[in-house]
Design a protein that fits this description.
Order of helices and strands of chain A: HHHHEEEEHEH
Oligomer: homodimer
Number of strands of chain A: 5
CATH superfamily of the largest domain in chain A: Winged helix-like DNA-binding domain superfamily/Winged helix DNA-binding domain
Pfam families (chains A, B): FUR
Number of helices of chain A: 6
Distance between the termini of chain A: 44 Å
Organism (chains A, B): Pelosinus fermentans JBW45
GO molecular function (chains A, B): DNA-binding transcription factor activity; transcription cis-regulatory region binding; zinc ion binding
GO biological process, one term (chains A, B): regulation of secondary metabolite biosynthetic process
Bound molecules: manganese (II) ion, zinc ion
Number of domains of chain A: 2
Cofactor (chains A, B): Zn(2+)
Radius of gyration of chain A: 17 Å
Chain lengths: ~140, ~140
DNA sequence: TTTTTTATAGAAAACAATTATCGAGTAGTT
DNA sequence: AACTACTCGATAATTGTTTTCTATAAAAAA
């Protein structure tokens, strides 16, 4: 993993810096799909001098070398995911958490659309919104 | 149509104004999925004093009374659609146009996800991106 | 119709997410 | 060690959207 990002950065002429490693490590070890600000806040303790701009610039690079994907979950800010398979997400409209939708095969659906349109489809993004189990429980009390 | 919006506005205590009618008319007679700025620009000739803020505020109201839906097509701004069925969209990454994806039944897919997750799904949004027929032709020259 | 009440339009300012700029600093090379 | 090019992070700029405020237009009352 760590070897991977180091060489990927170097091969493309990007320098390997503690900030970049920290950001990628943080992202690849969480399932929370954080946005830039969450990443920034989480790393602030360990890297007190790091700025939000660095997070944004690093995400740009990580996206470029194919290590992260940018999610649009219907919010005002983007979220990031170190899992590179294209999978659907669901966001809780009450607590804001974004999770993966598991066990869903999107290929059939994507193929159907690809064949039904004259566009040359390059990618897609699916997101659902609703109420998470925790908030459902909270509501029923 | 016009009766519909007029009474819908009135019933909810909103006033019926020329601006609101113009914005809704423009939106419901186009297939272009315009964003706020496009709507503003298009109406500027006829309503020279109308401001962008009015467009945004009107869209908020129209959304509230169920006459428009807000689309997130993976851009930096929102697009609006007077067609209220939930249907997928495809955006051309070269010319930026956003179109409907026709002849696709999303219900089966949505149901599958609904049953596979512990979330109580309230809605979803699917968007594809790729290259439109026009831009494909342009590219091959 | 005229008056009164109340919501609205639009200008301007405020906001929030993101991007650009730039000088000092640092990694990797010679 | 010295050099060079890339990068960091502070700051400013940008952009889409929302809020604020007040004259005014629309609806209700008279
Ligand atoms: Mn994910
Ligand atoms: Mn549409
Ligand atoms: Zn929740
Ligand atoms: Zn195109």
């Amino acid at each position: 993993m760590e070897v991977c990002i180091t060489s990927l950065l170097r091969d493309r002429g990007f320098k390997v810096t503690p900030q970049r490693l920290a950001i990628y490590n943080m992202l690849s070890s969480t399932k929370s799909h954080p946005n830039a600000e969450m990443i920034f806040n989480e790393l602030q303790a360990m890297y007190p001098t790091m700025s939000l701009a660095t997070v944004y610039k690093t995400m740009e690079i990580l996206k470029e070398i194919g290590l992260v994907q940018v999610l649009n979950a219907g919010e005002d800010s983007f979220r990031y995911d170190a899992v590179m398979t294209n999978h659907p997400h669901v966001r809780c409209t009450e607590c804001g958490q974004v999770e993966d939708v598991y066990d869903i095969n999107i290929d059939a659906f994507v193929n159907e659309v690809s064949q039904g349109t004259k566009y040359q489809i390059m990618g897609q993004q699916f997101y659902f919104h609703g109420i998470c189990p925790t908030c459902q429980r909270k509501n029923s009390n």
